[in-house]
């Protein structure tokens, strides 16, 4: 009995020592105020329940900068949206350690010469590569749309009513086998080999990524993947990819994957490392799927929005239509000059975004706030901005919880009497593929509106799941069933990589 008591006392002493050594600390002079929290997990429970509500409450109590704790990690949160440019440019707020933490904890690899590789690879989704990437995406999307239209082209049974033309499917699956399939093949191309890996296909990877992604926040904070059996099972399938040399022979392989694969091979990285990096890139593009999901849902929930978007698109088609041609071409500039579609996409992002912009503090840093106050951010901590708190701020956006599809048409937004340069912040400030992703979603919506009638049956409703704040794009609380049918004699839309001289 005495021995047991001694062991318990030693264990308790060790726990107390560990708590004061690795978790507890005193606030230093000039540091931002601390948000009170649980002595073990800090503010994790409140943040997980509803991050925006928790941070807005903390802002009212403590001001535009304060520090929270998630387990043993301290994060200084900057709430003033006018700090975005300064936050992004501060050299002592470093993204590299965060990127390494995600790569290692979530995808199980470390990228050598990471900054150089990411910089060079990022060029492969911008500039002249933007046009070639969009051309490949448009071709892949056209193919999956054609397959759906052919499936619907079977003759109606004799005596069948008009309802026989409609197909019914979950919105998640419909978006997966259209948008996500096109994104997947645009990234990884296609193989002519009959011995291709069976599970390396868009639907399997989407299904497994959907499962794996639910545990993302736990994994990047450092919790072992073995604690989550479903994540373990999913990641085993996600690593069933072609070996690098086989990947490089695939037809239509993206310039990004080709460059990153060759770069990693040259730097002696393993096949496992290359596959892990492929999953990082797919993870980024998975957000494109989620945004598209919410765009389609908003069109279905508000048919009047879809009608307005269809009217804008019809006018654009007629303006570009050449007599005698069944197809209408759009350039990058044409896609960007649809103001209502652009506003609709921004409004969707405003309500569905959950991105956490986190940086590692490399040395004690005095951070100047716009109100003239200066706070010291401690070396070794994390510092973050959380765009959803901006997106849901009633001082910036009137009725922020209401979806207004034309909110961003010729509009300006203000906080503290000063105009916001970036009222909608998504995908993080360092994401090189933001423009490519936005163009993909716009092109997908243009083709969907042009090619299909869509309908949301009575009682089918969902909403963003705020328990997943911290994910780039929030998932739905549950999926919904949708109905769709091809529009007869709709003109085909095709992408024009460059504007022709005559235009």
Automatic annotation (TrEMBL):
Substrate binds at residues 111, 287, 382. GO terms for molecular function: metal ion binding; oxidoreductase activity. The keyword Calcium does not apply. GO terms for biological process: steroid metabolic process. Keywords: Endoplasmic reticulum, Heme, Iron, Lipid metabolism, Membrane, Metal-binding, Oxidoreductase, Steroid metabolism. One of its GO terms (cellular component) is endoplasmic reticulum membrane. InterPro entries: CYP450_sterol_14alpha_dmase, Cyt_P450, Cyt_P450_CYP7A1-type, Cyt_P450_E_grp-IV, Cyt_P450_sf. Its main location: endoplasmic reticulum. Heme binds at residue 431. Signal peptide: none annotated. It is found in: Endoplasmic reticulum membrane. Pfam families: p450 (PF00067). Its cofactor is heme. Pathway: Lipid metabolism; bile acid biosynthesis. Belongs to the cytochrome P450 family. This is Cytochrome P450. It comes from Batillaria attramentaria.
